[in-house]
Write a structure and sequence with these properties.
- The chain is mainly α.
- It has one domain.
- Helix content is 79%, strand content 0%.
- α3 runs antiparallel to α11 and α6 packs antiparallel against α12.
- The longest helix has 33 residues.
- The two termini are 23 Å apart.
- 43% of the residues are buried.
């Protein structure tokens, strides 16, 4: 299938320009450092095994969205601007193949980097001979891979919608600020308007669900359940569905837009 050749091309390009090596090394360094700090605390009796997952989660909430967006925001708009897309479409590829293949190829680069980082954290923990929360780390790996896929999907959608790389980069930056830092306050803003520009005495039931529409906050809630942090399992299930929804519907929207746009 031709989307596979597009995905292989993306991975090959990342290997040739050492983009894959750079990202993997960054995750290895950051996750390994966090694991070493955790191991020092665990050996002194001030940290439980699952605390490693919580620390990795806090860093991943910043690092994974940033890398996912940077890897993918120009993946379609850049070759569109320099004419490479016209050349690709002259081969046995259609526009859906290009979007899906680019999406999966860019995600493979991020996924390998995440796996390398988690492997480094496990190795450091074993070297320091502290207890390893293996089940929680496996769950963390799956959830973090889902977070990465969601942000790659969003970036691919942005790249398919825009015609200029500058606009794509601006949109990616806004998405990062909104979903990583700003979305937590969105339910409160909606509640304030709905309540007649007054602060309600109690947060409405729907506010927690609106908050989890951010893939970053949905991911956080899923991890909290994994480490037994007393989180509501219904909200965690909703958060998992939100991550899946971003992974599926964002690239589908990008495919639909790209299929009807003029190159």
């Amino acid at each position: 299938m031709s989307w596979r050749s597009i995905a292989r091309k993306e991975i090959g390009d990342a290997l040739r320009n050492r983009q894959l090596h750079t990202n993997a090394a960054m995750f290895v360094l950051v996750f390994g450092l966090i694991a070493s700090l955790h191991a020092n605390q665990a050996r002194s009796g001030t940290a439980q095994p699952a605390a490693l997952v919580e620390r990795l989660m806090l860093v991943s909430m910043l690092l994974v969205p940033a890398v996912g967006l940077m890897l993918s925001y120009a993946a379609i708009v850049k070759p569109r601007a320099n004419g490479q897309l016209a050349l690709l479409l002259g081969m046995p590829h259609d526009r859906t193949d290009i979007v899906i293949g680019t999406y999966l190829g860019r995600y493979a680069i991020l996924a390998v980097s995440i796996v390398a980082g988690v492997a480094a954290a496990v190795l450091v923990t074993l070297v320091f001979r502290v207890e390893l929360a293996a089940a929680e780390l496996v769950g963390f790996l799956v959830a973090t891979a889902g977070l990465g896929l969601a942000f790659v999907a969003i970036a691919i959608c942005l790249s398919a919608f825009t015609r200029e790389q500058t606009w794509a980069s601006v949109c990616a930056f806004v998405v990062f600020l909104l979903f990583v830092f700003g979305w937590y306050f969105v339910p409160g803003g909606i509640e304030y308007v709905v309540n007649g520009f007054e602060t309600a005495a109690q947060e409405p039931w729907w506010a927690a669900y609106v908050r989890l529409l951010s893939p970053t906050l949905a991911y956080q809630r899923v991890i909290e359940v994994l480490v037994g942090d007393g989180a509501d399992r219904r909200l965690a299930a909703f958060g998992s569905a939100v991550l899946l929804g971003w992974c599926l519907f964002a690239p589908a929207l990008g495919v639909r837009r790209f299929a009807t746009s003029d190159l």
